[in-house]
TrEMBL record, chain A:
This is Aerobic-type carbon monoxide dehydrogenase, middle subunit CoxM/CutM-like protein. Its EC number is 1.-.-.-, 1.1.-.-. One of its GO terms (molecular function) is oxidoreductase activity. It comes from Acididesulfobacillus acetoxydans. The keyword Repeat does not apply. Pfam families: CO_deh_flav_C, FAD_binding_5. PANTHER family: XANTHINE DEHYDROGENASE SUBUNIT C-RELATED. Keywords: FAD, Flavoprotein, Oxidoreductase. Residues 1-168 form the FAD-binding PCMH-type domain.
Automatic annotation (TrEMBL), chain B:
Residues 2-266 form the Aldehyde oxidase/xanthine dehydrogenase second molybdopterin binding domain. The keyword Glycosyltransferase does not apply. The lineage of its organism: Bacteria, Bacillati, Bacillota, Clostridia, Eubacteriales. Keywords: Oxidoreductase. This is Molybdopterin-binding domain of aldehyde dehydrogenase. PANTHER family: XANTHINE DEHYDROGENASE, XANTHINE DEHYDROGENASE SUBUNIT D-RELATED.
Amino acid sequence: MYYIRPQTLAKALEAGEEPGMLYLAGGTDLILKLRRREVQARGLVDLQAVAELRQIRAGGDWLEIGAMVSFADLLNNDTAAQEARALWLACSSMGAPQIRNQATLGGNLANCSPAADSLPALLVLQAQVRLLSRSGEVLLPLAEVLGRTPLWQPGTLLAGFRLPLRAGVSGFAKLGRRQALAIARLSAAVALREENGRACGVRVAFGAAGKRAFLSLDLAEELNGLVLDRGFTELACRQAKKVISRALGERASAPYKKEAVAGVVREALRTMEFVTSGEHADVDRKGGRGNED
Amino acid sequence: MKKRGRGLGCAWYGTGYGNGFPDVSSAFVEIHDDGSVSVLTGAIDVGQGSSTIFAQIAAEELGIDADEVTVISGDTDTTPDSGTSAATRHTYNTGNAVIKAVTQAKAGLLAYAARALHCTSADGIELKDHRVRVKGEPARSLPLAEVVSQARLDGERFLGSESYTARTTRVNPETGQGSPYWPYAFGCQVAEVEVDTETGNVRVLKVVAAHDLGKAINPLQAEGQIAGGIAQGVGFALLEEVQLSEGQIKNPSLSQYLIPTVLDTPEIHAILVEEPEETGPYGAKGLGEPAMLPTIAAIVNAIDDAVGVRITSLPATPEKILAALAGPSKT
């Protein structure tokens, strides 16, 4: 097998265009798949040395996150912690410190597991995906990319994500079987703006409830314009059950997940950086456990 | 809604092989002419700390430090068989064998020292602080290493080779009477849990664990064994399950067969109860397996206390808890 470690984007693109060459990001999924022979490759183009892909930059109206930014890099970035709270929470819930040091956000999308932790968060944060190829650069909404199979054509390099700054508040919660090294069984991300005590621009996304993470436009529409009080939370939890029930259909996990989603959405709302009602007053900002009774 | 509850679990556990099966441990001991000691035993330290316990026992008997004792274990070419690292038996069973072997090696040393110190009986000699002393007259003493070294030049060797067998009997199948285990270990734990009534998730917040171990030869290791037992108990109660399909294990890796991580492990408060076991080394008995037993009942009872459902099969998964919550409520 060939192994190439280019230092520039141009060299990386050139190498990636060769037939059978795969881009290697953190490798936490790809290496396992290669070992299990679920993926065949003539060679790997390791993107670790392409400095441009490892940057997080805030400028103008946008937060730019390079595809090779690791989960740990994102957790250490103050702007991301403030502006992309749902993503920050999702990153903090993924794997364990060793995996967060190695795994990248670009890899999380490229691998596109149903349970990918970052994707529901990136969806509600209105992420655009930056794709490079010989024919140039395109920016596409993540929701659109997730609607395609394959996500992009061979020879395309995922360069990173672009998120609007000052787009409101966001939160994320995940249901796993344990507190670390847990694959999401269900995850939810929420984002909105508060205007005069009402919710505007609501976006809700789910992970591990179907083949890929998805935005629920129905749920967003039902919540838009409502007063942000306890009733908002209860309605969101109740309606989320219907969304998950529809998404999962007759799957074996459906009876459990369509009930449990209420708790996940409640937790996601709880992690948001504002008080929606008296019951949220003591919420730990980092999404820690609050005691409701 | 997240609800909290507390539950109690109690356990008693017969240590050793039991039911009259020969439960034998053996040890070889040599006291060297620099005052250090070798202990050879087949008992394998798989992380539970048995080799440390044997070093402490030999050091205690000879008035030296544990780091002057070399424990050679689990080498079938050189060490005498001490049975398996199982049944919570090494501190008690092999610990007793080590004491017996050290006592044997020490007997020759005391007799030699009595002559060297002009004492009429070996009973009047004691080993303390690396010295051989006349009891009641500490000024009459010699360095241990000097005595052993001189004895060696005089052709003396201080060796021990001993075995210990636990005193169990078979149970009479007619009457159910007998002494199938010796000794028994006792433990009691209280768990505090938080149950999410919407997701069925359980978090174990705190476990207080009181265990009778006779005598804590190494209190830090004892606390470690209790913490390890509770972590395993949390896994047993909430996570661990071998899934079988037509005889094949469906989850044969640690990415599928989940055990608790450190973040799933509760705050642990260990209470060491020292009710001496008169047949044990310094009154000690085993703690290893008993440490995980009460955890399971304590957690399941705490779930009941929190949300009023009785989980009757393990692990107590979120699915089972939600299903039980949805079912007819308990009266």
